[in-house]
User: What shape does this take?
Amino acid sequence: MEQHQTRMKVDTTGFAGGVKRDELVPSRYVVRIGEIDVMVISDGVLEPPAESMATNADPVIRTAWLDERFLAHDVFDWALNAVVVRSGSQTILVDSGIGGEVPDFRRAGQLGHRLAAAGIDLGSVTDVVLTHMHFDHVGGLLVDGVKEKLRPDLRIHVSAAEAKFWEAPDFSRTGMPPVLVETARSASRRFLDEYRSQLRTFEKEQDVAPGVVVARTGGHTPGHSVVRIASGGNRLVFGGDAIFPVSFDHPEWHNGFEHDPEEATRVRMKLMRELAETGAWLVSTHMPFPSVGRVAVDGDLFRWVPVWWDY
Ligand SMILES: [Zn+2]
Assistant: This one.
Protein backbone atom coordinates (compact mmCIF):
# COMPACT_ATOMS: atom_id res chain seq x y z
CA MET A 1 0.00 0.00 0.00
CA GLU A 2 1.12 3.49 -0.75
CA GLN A 3 0.77 4.48 2.89
CA HIS A 4 3.35 1.93 3.94
CA GLN A 5 5.76 3.10 1.25
CA THR A 6 5.48 6.60 2.67
CA ARG A 7 6.27 5.27 6.14
CA MET A 8 9.45 3.65 4.89
CA LYS A 9 10.87 7.00 3.86
CA VAL A 10 10.50 8.62 7.26
CA ASP A 11 13.72 9.01 9.19
CA THR A 12 13.07 7.69 12.67
CA THR A 13 16.46 8.02 14.27
CA GLY A 14 17.27 9.85 17.46
CA PHE A 15 13.99 10.28 19.33
CA ALA A 16 15.59 11.17 22.63
CA GLY A 17 17.40 14.37 21.78
CA GLY A 18 19.87 16.13 19.57
CA VAL A 19 18.92 18.25 16.59
CA LYS A 20 17.66 16.22 13.69
CA ARG A 21 18.32 17.58 10.24
CA ASP A 22 16.26 17.54 7.12
CA GLU A 23 12.81 16.91 8.52
CA LEU A 24 10.43 16.55 5.62
CA VAL A 25 7.52 18.42 7.18
CA PRO A 26 7.20 21.20 9.75
CA SER A 27 6.64 20.02 13.31
CA ARG A 28 5.58 23.20 15.09
CA TYR A 29 2.80 25.73 14.68
CA VAL A 30 2.17 28.81 16.78
CA VAL A 31 -1.17 30.42 17.59
CA ARG A 32 -1.32 33.71 19.43
CA ILE A 33 -4.14 34.03 21.96
CA GLY A 34 -4.07 37.70 23.04
CA GLU A 35 -0.83 38.05 24.98
CA ILE A 36 -0.19 34.30 25.14
CA ASP A 37 1.80 32.22 22.65
CA VAL A 38 0.66 28.64 22.13
CA MET A 39 3.04 26.43 20.17
CA VAL A 40 1.86 23.02 19.07
CA ILE A 41 4.77 20.59 18.65
CA SER A 42 4.33 17.20 17.03
CA ASP A 43 5.83 14.27 18.90
CA GLY A 44 5.20 12.14 15.81
CA VAL A 45 2.61 9.51 15.06
CA LEU A 46 1.46 6.48 17.09
CA GLU A 47 0.30 3.28 15.40
CA PRO A 48 -2.35 1.55 17.55
CA PRO A 49 -4.74 -1.06 16.14
CA ALA A 50 -7.49 0.64 14.11
CA GLU A 51 -10.22 -1.15 16.08
CA SER A 52 -9.02 0.58 19.28
CA MET A 53 -10.39 3.83 17.83
CA ALA A 54 -13.97 2.53 18.05
CA THR A 55 -14.28 -0.46 20.34
CA ASN A 56 -18.10 -0.37 20.46
CA ALA A 57 -18.63 0.19 16.73
CA ASP A 58 -20.10 -2.27 14.26
CA PRO A 59 -16.95 -3.49 12.43
CA VAL A 60 -18.63 -2.95 9.06
CA ILE A 61 -19.36 0.70 9.88
CA ARG A 62 -15.88 1.21 11.31
CA THR A 63 -14.28 -0.23 8.19
CA ALA A 64 -16.47 1.95 5.99
CA TRP A 65 -15.39 5.01 7.98
CA LEU A 66 -11.74 4.10 7.43
CA ASP A 67 -12.30 3.39 3.72
CA GLU A 68 -14.00 6.72 3.17
CA ARG A 69 -10.83 8.38 4.46
CA PHE A 70 -8.38 6.15 2.58
CA LEU A 71 -7.06 4.81 5.90
CA ALA A 72 -5.61 1.37 6.54
CA HIS A 73 -7.79 -1.25 8.29
CA ASP A 74 -5.10 -2.65 10.57
CA VAL A 75 -3.18 0.26 12.06
CA PHE A 76 -4.41 3.78 12.78
CA ASP A 77 -2.03 6.69 12.24
CA TRP A 78 -2.71 8.56 15.45
CA ALA A 79 -1.05 11.97 15.69
CA LEU A 80 0.60 12.87 18.99
CA ASN A 81 0.94 16.54 19.90
CA ALA A 82 2.27 18.45 22.88
CA VAL A 83 2.01 22.18 23.50
CA VAL A 84 4.30 24.89 24.83
CA VAL A 85 2.51 27.92 26.27
CA ARG A 86 4.26 31.20 27.03
CA SER A 87 2.38 33.50 29.37
CA GLY A 88 4.09 36.34 31.23
CA SER A 89 7.40 35.06 32.52
CA GLN A 90 6.30 31.41 32.46
CA THR A 91 7.02 28.69 29.93
CA ILE A 92 4.56 25.83 30.29
CA LEU A 93 4.92 22.43 28.66
CA VAL A 94 1.57 20.69 28.33
CA ASP A 95 2.16 16.93 28.13
CA SER A 96 5.44 15.48 26.98
CA GLY A 97 4.86 12.92 24.25
CA ILE A 98 5.75 9.25 24.44
CA GLY A 99 9.53 9.38 24.83
CA GLY A 100 10.94 5.89 24.38
CA GLU A 101 8.09 4.02 26.12
CA VAL A 102 6.98 2.03 23.05
CA PRO A 103 9.95 1.28 20.79
CA ASP A 104 7.58 -0.29 18.23
CA PHE A 105 6.03 3.14 17.63
CA ARG A 106 9.05 4.20 15.67
CA ARG A 107 7.63 7.45 14.34
CA ALA A 108 6.84 8.98 17.74
CA GLY A 109 8.94 10.21 20.65
CA GLN A 110 10.37 13.16 18.74
CA LEU A 111 9.55 15.96 21.16
CA GLY A 112 13.10 16.32 22.53
CA HIS A 113 14.85 17.28 19.34
CA ARG A 114 11.83 19.21 18.07
CA LEU A 115 11.76 21.37 21.21
CA ALA A 116 15.47 22.00 20.69
CA ALA A 117 14.87 22.88 17.03
CA ALA A 118 12.19 25.36 18.20
CA GLY A 119 14.76 27.01 20.47
CA ILE A 120 13.09 25.81 23.66
CA ASP A 121 15.56 24.77 26.30
CA LEU A 122 14.20 22.29 28.86
CA GLY A 123 15.81 24.41 31.58
CA SER A 124 13.54 27.33 30.64
CA VAL A 125 10.36 25.36 31.37
CA THR A 126 8.81 26.67 34.59
CA ASP A 127 5.69 24.47 34.61
CA VAL A 128 4.49 21.18 33.19
CA VAL A 129 0.77 20.48 32.93
CA LEU A 130 -0.33 16.89 32.45
CA THR A 131 -3.77 16.27 30.97
CA HIS A 132 -3.39 12.73 32.32
CA MET A 133 -0.72 10.14 33.04
CA HIS A 134 -0.89 7.77 30.07
CA PHE A 135 2.52 6.87 28.66
CA ASP A 136 2.04 8.98 25.51
CA HIS A 137 1.70 12.05 27.75
CA VAL A 138 4.35 11.47 30.44
CA GLY A 139 6.88 9.44 28.43
CA GLY A 140 8.92 12.44 27.33
CA LEU A 141 9.72 13.20 30.98
CA LEU A 142 11.11 9.66 31.41
CA VAL A 143 13.70 9.87 28.62
CA ASP A 144 17.28 9.47 29.90
CA GLY A 145 18.84 12.81 30.77
CA VAL A 146 15.61 14.86 30.64
CA LYS A 147 15.05 15.17 34.39
CA GLU A 148 18.59 16.49 34.85
CA LYS A 149 17.93 19.27 32.35
CA LEU A 150 14.70 20.38 34.05
CA ARG A 151 14.68 23.02 36.77
CA PRO A 152 14.72 21.65 40.31
CA ASP A 153 11.82 24.00 41.16
CA LEU A 154 9.73 22.84 38.18
CA ARG A 155 6.02 22.64 39.05
CA ILE A 156 4.05 19.73 37.58
CA HIS A 157 0.30 20.36 37.57
CA VAL A 158 -1.90 17.28 37.55
CA SER A 159 -5.25 16.57 39.15
CA ALA A 160 -5.26 14.83 42.52
CA ALA A 161 -7.68 12.24 41.13
CA GLU A 162 -5.19 11.35 38.38
CA ALA A 163 -2.24 10.91 40.73
CA LYS A 164 -4.42 8.78 43.01
CA PHE A 165 -5.81 6.64 40.17
CA TRP A 166 -2.36 5.55 39.03
CA GLU A 167 -1.44 4.27 42.47
CA ALA A 168 -3.71 1.29 41.64
CA PRO A 169 -4.99 1.72 38.07
CA ASP A 170 -8.07 -0.11 36.79
CA PHE A 171 -8.00 -1.21 33.13
CA SER A 172 -11.12 -3.38 33.26
CA ARG A 173 -13.13 -1.13 30.92
CA THR A 174 -10.37 -0.28 28.45
CA GLY A 175 -9.76 -1.99 25.11
CA MET A 176 -6.02 -1.53 25.01
CA PRO A 177 -3.65 -4.15 23.63
CA PRO A 178 -2.30 -6.03 26.72
CA VAL A 179 1.27 -4.97 26.03
CA LEU A 180 0.19 -1.33 26.24
CA VAL A 181 -1.57 -1.94 29.56
CA GLU A 182 1.80 -3.01 30.94
CA THR A 183 3.44 0.03 29.33
CA ALA A 184 0.86 2.28 30.98
CA ARG A 185 1.42 0.71 34.40
CA SER A 186 5.16 0.95 34.12
CA ALA A 187 5.32 4.53 32.77
CA SER A 188 2.93 5.92 35.40
CA ARG A 189 4.76 4.12 38.21
CA ARG A 190 8.15 5.46 37.11
CA PHE A 191 6.71 8.92 36.59
CA LEU A 192 5.31 9.02 40.14
CA ASP A 193 8.60 7.68 41.54
CA GLU A 194 10.66 10.31 39.73
CA TYR A 195 8.48 13.38 40.05
CA ARG A 196 6.15 12.94 43.03
CA SER A 197 7.74 15.76 45.04
CA GLN A 198 7.18 18.22 42.20
CA LEU A 199 3.47 17.58 41.73
CA ARG A 200 1.06 20.46 42.29
CA THR A 201 -2.24 18.64 42.54
CA PHE A 202 -5.70 20.17 42.40
CA GLU A 203 -9.29 19.00 42.83
CA LYS A 204 -11.35 20.87 40.22
CA GLU A 205 -9.07 23.42 38.62
CA GLN A 206 -5.87 25.35 39.12
CA ASP A 207 -4.43 28.61 37.80
CA VAL A 208 -1.13 27.85 36.12
CA ALA A 209 -0.20 31.29 34.75
CA PRO A 210 -2.04 34.49 33.76
CA GLY A 211 -4.84 33.32 31.42
CA VAL A 212 -3.93 29.64 31.76
CA VAL A 213 -6.14 27.31 33.82
CA VAL A 214 -6.09 23.52 34.03
CA ALA A 215 -9.51 21.99 34.76
CA ARG A 216 -10.43 18.41 35.51
CA THR A 217 -13.00 16.71 33.26
CA GLY A 218 -12.58 13.02 34.11
CA GLY A 219 -13.80 10.47 31.58
CA HIS A 220 -10.79 9.29 29.60
CA THR A 221 -9.08 8.74 32.94
CA PRO A 222 -10.58 9.71 36.31
CA GLY A 223 -8.37 12.78 36.57
CA HIS A 224 -8.22 13.73 32.89
CA SER A 225 -8.00 17.51 32.51
CA VAL A 226 -8.11 20.15 29.82
CA VAL A 227 -6.17 23.42 29.65
CA ARG A 228 -8.14 26.62 29.07
CA ILE A 229 -6.27 29.60 27.70
CA ALA A 230 -7.85 33.05 27.44
CA SER A 231 -6.38 36.45 26.67
CA GLY A 232 -7.48 39.60 24.83
CA GLY A 233 -10.93 38.17 24.08
CA ASN A 234 -9.46 35.06 22.40
CA ARG A 235 -9.77 31.53 23.70
CA LEU A 236 -8.14 28.18 23.11
CA VAL A 237 -8.73 24.85 24.81
CA PHE A 238 -6.16 22.08 24.83
CA GLY A 239 -8.50 19.13 25.01
CA GLY A 240 -6.03 16.33 25.74
CA ASP A 241 -7.69 12.98 25.03
CA ALA A 242 -11.31 14.15 25.22
CA ILE A 243 -11.73 14.42 21.44
CA PHE A 244 -10.28 12.12 18.75
CA PRO A 245 -10.32 12.18 14.93
CA VAL A 246 -13.33 9.81 14.85
CA SER A 247 -15.26 11.87 17.42
CA PHE A 248 -16.83 14.39 15.06
CA ASP A 249 -18.66 11.79 12.99
CA HIS A 250 -19.13 9.39 15.89
CA PRO A 251 -18.87 11.04 19.32
CA GLU A 252 -20.47 7.88 20.74
CA TRP A 253 -17.59 5.67 19.63
CA HIS A 254 -15.60 4.44 22.59
CA ASN A 255 -11.85 4.69 22.41
CA GLY A 256 -9.93 1.67 23.68
CA PHE A 257 -7.76 3.87 25.89
CA GLU A 258 -10.72 5.25 27.85
CA HIS A 259 -11.00 3.98 31.42
CA ASP A 260 -14.69 5.02 31.67
CA PRO A 261 -16.00 5.07 28.09
CA GLU A 262 -19.54 6.27 28.90
CA GLU A 263 -18.27 9.16 30.98
CA ALA A 264 -15.65 9.93 28.31
CA THR A 265 -18.46 10.20 25.75
CA ARG A 266 -20.39 12.61 27.98
CA VAL A 267 -17.25 14.72 28.53
CA ARG A 268 -16.55 14.76 24.79
CA MET A 269 -20.09 15.82 23.80
CA LYS A 270 -20.18 18.55 26.42
CA LEU A 271 -16.80 19.92 25.36
CA MET A 272 -17.67 19.84 21.66
CA ARG A 273 -20.94 21.69 22.29
CA GLU A 274 -19.13 24.27 24.39
CA LEU A 275 -16.48 24.79 21.69
CA ALA A 276 -19.13 25.13 18.98
CA GLU A 277 -20.96 27.69 21.08
CA THR A 278 -17.95 29.81 22.06
CA GLY A 279 -15.95 29.48 18.84
CA ALA A 280 -12.83 28.84 20.93
CA TRP A 281 -9.90 27.18 19.21
CA LEU A 282 -9.35 23.53 20.00
CA VAL A 283 -5.98 21.82 20.07
CA SER A 284 -6.20 18.12 20.72
CA THR A 285 -3.48 15.62 21.52
CA HIS A 286 -4.43 13.17 18.81
CA MET A 287 -5.87 15.33 16.01
CA PRO A 288 -3.65 15.53 12.93
CA PHE A 289 -0.94 18.19 13.16
CA PRO A 290 -1.16 21.13 13.62
CA SER A 291 -4.33 20.08 15.41
CA VAL A 292 -5.66 23.63 15.55
CA GLY A 293 -9.27 24.16 14.60
CA ARG A 294 -12.80 24.92 15.62
CA VAL A 295 -15.84 22.77 16.17
CA ALA A 296 -19.09 23.37 14.29
CA VAL A 297 -22.35 21.73 15.30
CA ASP A 298 -25.59 21.04 13.44
CA GLY A 299 -28.06 19.19 15.64
CA ASP A 300 -26.20 16.09 16.81
CA LEU A 301 -23.60 16.30 14.05
CA PHE A 302 -20.22 17.84 14.70
CA ARG A 303 -17.67 19.04 12.19
CA TRP A 304 -13.95 19.80 12.57
CA VAL A 305 -13.03 23.11 10.94
CA PRO A 306 -9.24 23.21 10.67
CA VAL A 307 -7.28 26.44 10.95
CA TRP A 308 -6.27 28.10 7.71
CA TRP A 309 -2.50 28.08 8.01
CA ASP A 310 -1.06 31.52 8.51
CA TYR A 311 2.44 31.68 7.01
ZN1 LIG B 1 -3.20 10.02 24.52
User: Anything to note?
Assistant: The first strand starts at residue 28 and ends at 33. The chain is about 25% helix and 25% strand.
